[in-house]
From TrEMBL, chains A, B:
Record's protein name: Precorrin-3B C(17)-methyltransferase
Molecular function via GO: precorrin-3B C17-methyltransferase activity
The encoding gene: cobJ
EC number: 2.1.1.131
Upper classification of the organism: Bacteria, Bacillati, Bacillota, Clostridia, Lachnospirales
Pfam families: TP_methylase
Keywords noted in UniProt: Cobalamin biosynthesis, Methyltransferase, S-adenosyl-L-methionine, Transferase
InterPro entries attached to this UniProt entry: 4pyrrol_Mease (IPR000878), 4pyrrol_Methylase_sf (IPR035996), 4pyrrole_Mease_sub1 (IPR014777), 4pyrrole_Mease_sub2 (IPR014776), Cbl_synth_CobJ/CibH_dom (IPR006363), Precorrin_MeTrfase (IPR051810)
UniProt pathway annotation: Cofactor biosynthesis; adenosylcobalamin biosynthesis
Highest rank taxon of the organism: Bacteria
All residue ranges annotated as the Tetrapyrrole methylase domain in the record: 1-208
Source organism of this protein record: Vallitalea pronyensis
Enzyme class, broadest EC rank: transferase
């Protein structure tokens, strides 16, 4: 049995009851090191297996091996495991092996939604979610999607906005969006949303790259109606029209 | 004090610990009738105010009046209050009145993510979220966004896909997406995701309108890589390349 468990920002407050139960009642917890550390208060007698970035396939194979040995596995993933999380590859590996191991998915709060709740209500209307990581996606596909996000005047949530290996992608994203959006479009950036070391910035599309951004940041670019008032970033749904 | 509380699909299992606490510790619970009914087990001594669809502005004004009278209000919203939920207009009304009432937002599991966890892992890559409701959005804007969703080969999550007043919008959406996506693109449709009366359908873009769809349905259209195997709908992130 493999439970794919979304842990949201990480602490129990922001996790669902069923996700917490699935972790508590597992024999083994498997996950990326950072996500395991965030849920330390939930770890008691369970066995723990973790590894690092780019080891996702190995991690999933390990989880499957534990499950085949009769153990109840909690494969944990920050945010929602189904949104850029481990949920996809874990299920692909079970399907490839034609294993009859049962897999259950426990949804959670993805980082864009945790960040939005901190900023105000920036994503109340139509939105797109794009990752700038080119590890698994061709940069030309990423560019095409940024253009489509601009064309559709979508609220744009940018995952994995900046890493050491690709520091300039975020300015590329800004430049593409500037082809369609006003330079004063509000942008909210939340680093470590709903974690102890949370940082919040509200800026504009033009100036967004002046704010410190890293892989723990969520960048939310507004649509043509988004405004900032009293430190809150709001995209109207249209009730006032 | 107004707590904007996301209740996800509705039952406690899928709610965050902090959301449940905010409801339990409120003096008054305010919300749309259906969302209030779903959280009945959490209602004990709290006062309750509910009303119907299209009464959102009145509901928010009522919540603000309760808060001004010194009560702790839980304004509840199904899914995530910040994703097509009451979170936006509630904050707009507080800002308009220049009230110094404190507002806190409790994020939750939006219906696309609840549905995705039921279907497998359909939204693991870049995605768009579009509502087909034209109550608050011009139909031409909706069409433009559907074209952009197709152009960008995004996974496309359709909120409010069909109501009695606009039964044909879902076939319009299908037809626009068919200009860009293969007719055999997998489509997952979940009605009442993670509620007692859940219904799950996996079909294709071409045939999606043959499935019963209503306002309680979430429609998830895959991207060019999405596949169906053993009843699971999966969009690969690319780890296998």
């Amino acid at each position: 049995m493999i439970n794919i468990v979304s842990t949201g920002p990480g602490q129990q407050d922001c996790m669902s009851y069923e996700a917490v139960e699935a972790i508590k009642q597992s024999d083994v917890i498997v996950g990326y090191k950072k996500y395991i550390e965030l849920i330390t208060p939930l770890i008691h007698e369970q066995e723990v297996f973790y590894n690092g970035m780019k080891k996702e396939v190995d991690r999933c194979k390990k989880a499957l091996a534990f499950a085949k040995a009769g153990k109840t596995v909690a494969m944990v993933s920050g945010g929602d495991a189904g949104i850029y999380g481990i949920g996809g590859i874990m299920q692909e590996i079970v399907l490839e092996e034609q294993s009859d191991i049962e897999v259950r998915c426990y949804p959670g709060i993805t980082s864009a939604h945790a960040a939005a709740a901190v900023l105000g209500a920036p994503i109340v209307h139509d939105s797109v979610y794009i990752s700038l990581s080119d590890l698994l996606t061709d940069i030309e596909v990423i560019k095409k999607r940024l253009h489509a996000a601009g064309m559709g005047d979508f609220i744009t949530c940018i995952y994995n906005p900046k890493s050491k290996g690709r520091p300039h992608y975020i300015s590329m994203a800004r430049d593409i969006l500037l082809e369609y959006k006003d330079s004063q479009t509000p942008v909210g950036i939340v680093k470590n949303a709903r974690r102890d070391n949370q940082e919040v910035y509200i800026t504009t599309l033009q100036d967004m790259c002046d704010v410190p951004i890293d892989m723990s940041s969520m960048v939310i670019v507004g649509n043509g109606d988004t405004y900032v008032k009293n430190g809150k970033m709001i995209t109207p749904r249209g009730y006032r029209r």
